[in-house]
Amino acid sequence: MSDVMLLLAHPRAASYCHALAENIAERLVELGHQVRSHDLYAERFDPILASYESHISGELISRC
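Above: the chain's sequence. Below: its structure in token form.
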């Protein structure tokens, strides 16, 4: 069928959000979808985009 990316961002592994994500992923697989799950807290995802990571043109403004 289709590829699905399931993103989860909750600090407690025993949370209701984790339970929902697990059930949703299982149901999607039962329906024939390919599911890729990411737990952003477990992966220590940093939501801050550093200036050196961005692809921009022009002058950079540094924050002191």
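The chain has a mean pLDDT of 88.
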